[in-house]
Amino acid sequence: MTRLLDxxxxxxxxxxxxxxxxxxxxxxxxxxxxxxxNVSGATGPVRTQLSGTVACQLPLLPAATTITLTIVRGTAxxxxxxxxxxxxxxxxxxxxxxxxxTASDFNIPAPASGLLVYTAFIGSNxxxxxxxxxxxxxxxxxSD
Length: 144
Description:
Shape: elongated
Structural class: mainly beta
Mean pLDDT: 90
Order of helices and strands: EEEEEEEEE
Low-confidence stretches: none
Helix content: under 10%
Distance between the termini: 6 Å
Number of strands: 9
């Protein structure tokens, strides 16, 4: 029987156009969400379901821009990647563009600390791309 262990949300911006955070580092994606799931009661392998949304806007001088989302199990980009996607912004749309994702992580051994951390990063291939909100990163952990 599957049972819910924990559910968490990292809500950086709840409303559209409520933030203006430049994606300034081209070679190093920036953090936009982090959650810690308490899995100390796991009786078997842990399974997680992760989801989120982030809104970006083209630079002032619109050009071909690609957004990359990366989710890791841990806190650093060198930790195991659970999910990664790249999407081009629509160059004809000057307003916010919303990216959503759903990811899963299966058969994870429960960590000794009982805390399973996931971190969401965002990067852009073009300087001047801006995160404008909303931004949300959610996770749910299950076990047998």
